[in-house]
Each structure stands twice: as C-alpha cells, then as structure tokens.
Automatic annotation (TrEMBL):
Annotated keywords: ATP-binding, Cell membrane, Hydrolase, Membrane, Nucleotide-binding, Translocase, Transport
Ranges annotated as spanning the membrane: none
GO terms for cellular component: membrane
Enzyme class (EC, first level): hydrolase
Identification of the protein by name: Phosphonate ABC transporter ATP-binding protein
SMART domains from the UniProt entry: AAA
UniProt xrefs under InterPro entries: AAA+_ATPase, ABC_transporter-like_ATP-bd, ABC_transporter-like_CS, ABC_transpr_PhnC, MetN_ABC_transporter-like, P-loop_NTPase
PROSITE patterns: ABC_TRANSPORTER_1, ABC_TRANSPORTER_2
Classification lineage: Bacteria, Pseudomonadati, Pseudomonadota, Alphaproteobacteria, Rhodobacterales
Encoding gene per record: phnC
A single GO molecular function term of this UniProt record: ABC-type phosphonate transporter activity
E.C. designation(s): 3.6.3.28
Amino acid sequence: MEKHMLSLAGLGRRFNATRAVDNVTLDIRPGEFVGVIGRSGAGKSTLLRLINRLIDPTAGRITFGDTDVTALQGRALRQWRRDCAMIFQQFNLVERLDVLTNVLVGRLADHGFLSSMAMRFTDAERTLAIRALDRLEMAPQALQRAGTLSGGQQQRVAIARALVQNPRIMLADEPIASLDPGNATRVMEALRSINRDDGITVLVNLHTLDTARAYCHRIIAMRDGRVFFDGTPRQLTDDVVRDIYGTDGLAEFDAAITSTAAHRRLRQTA
Ligand SMILES: Nc1ncnc2c1ncn2[C@@H]1O[C@H](COP(=O)(O)OP(=O)(O)OP(=O)(O)O)[C@@H](O)[C@H]1O
C-alpha cells in the first residue's frame, strides 16, 4: 500500500465566535504515532473530526498525498472515512448486538445498501473479524452482547471494528479517558501494536501527559485552537508543560502530571 503524508494547511474551524481550530499547519508522516494534548476546549476533538471529515473546516485544506481531502464528496468521502478509522471515548458500539456483529459493522462501508441493511457478511469477513478480536484478546466474548462488557472490553471491540475497516490512519479521541489504568494500558498497547506491526499512522488525543510521553513519538500540544508545541516527548520540558496548561488549568491536570519536579513546581505556582 502506498504511504502518503497527511498535511493540514492553515486549517480552521469556527463555531460562531469560537475558533475551535485556528490556522493549524502540520505534516503527519506515514507510520507516526502522534499524541495531541492540551486543556479541555483546546480544540483536540475538533482537529480529529476535521481530519476524518465528520465536520467541515471553515478555513484551510487537508491533503493526503495528492488527494485534497477537504474537497471529497459522496463515495470518495466514504472511502476516506474508511481510510481513517475513528475511536471514541464512549466506544459507540451497538449494545444490543453481539461483539462479532459489532466488529463486522466495520466492514459495512464496503457493502452495497441492501447487503448492509441485511447485515450479510462473507465467511472471509467473519474470519477477519475473529482475527481482529483475537488480537485484542476478545475472541472468547465474540457471541456476547456488547452491552454486557466492561468499558475496557468495549473499547477493545471498538478497536477491532476499526481494524477490519483496513484503515491507513487510526484516529482516537480520548480513547482511555473513561477506563481504569489496567484497561487504559491494554488499549494503548493495542494502538502501539497497530502502529508498529501494521504500520498504521496513529493520531490520538490524550488528557494525561504520562501516557503521551510513554507511547507517542511526537507530541502536539494545542492551546486555544492553535498548535502551541510540536516535538518529541523529550522536548516537552516542564516549562512548556506549564505554558500549555496554564496555572489555572493545573488543578484539572494535577493528576496527570507525575514528573515530580514539574509537579512540585507547578503546585507552588498554582
Ligand atoms: N459543535 C460545536 N458547537 C459549538 N462549539 C463547539 C462545537 N464543538 C466544539 N466547540 C467549541 O470548540 C472549542 C474546542 O472544542 P474541542 O471539543 O475541540 O476541544 P477539546 O480540546 O477536544 O476539549 P475536551 O478535552 O474537553 O474534549 C471549545 O470551545 C468548544 O466549546
């Protein structure tokens, strides 16, 4: 599969007077594992939603290789949404359906209208879905109703569903925000394996710095809709962290900051 650069150029999205995303210019190379951090309201979710065209920009352009993503419509737009799978904080599974069927929903974009209404799948698709579940250690629950699973299990099913879409980019919007630490680790490890072993680019919004530092090659911090920092975890110094979150945002992020020196200093200034 050809590998393309994802480029955002002067990207912006306004909601009335709010500039949720403001003049963002970024290149994301194929195979990168990028974490997006920032205070609540900094524009992280809006950025991800712009990339997979769940919402349209009010300024700027998104390109993937030679494709102008911002101009896509109809079938080409559906193809793009399949190319960049999205994982949400709240999993978005169909609770009354079993786990396997939920994963197979990830294949529906490849089906015509009638076959998707009937939810008819091929044996090859079922095999693919079972394999994806197995990889996330969820195969034993394949026939269980999704609504009966724990949050961590549901998120792993959501990742399996995203995987069978055969995406080039995996977008994850705070995928571990409502999980306990054990499940959060499993979900982050799954994203790491998808990145390393399958070469899929991962772009993940995170609200904990430690997680971003532990998993991401590159960290992008947003503030007021703009890119405020873009670099390696090592370049993300205590001073930069203080600037990203601001002193009044620290209470909110206190738990997230466990680099002890930074922690002490930040508490003193808060
Ligand atoms: N559909 C919408 N209508 C109006 N305003 C919106 C909408 N979506 C986002 N916003 C505003 O845009 C700004 C950025 O929101 P966004 O959700 O992207 O931030 P975030 O960094 O993801 O925050 P959080 O971590 O709380 O999810 C906020 O001021 C938010 O209120």
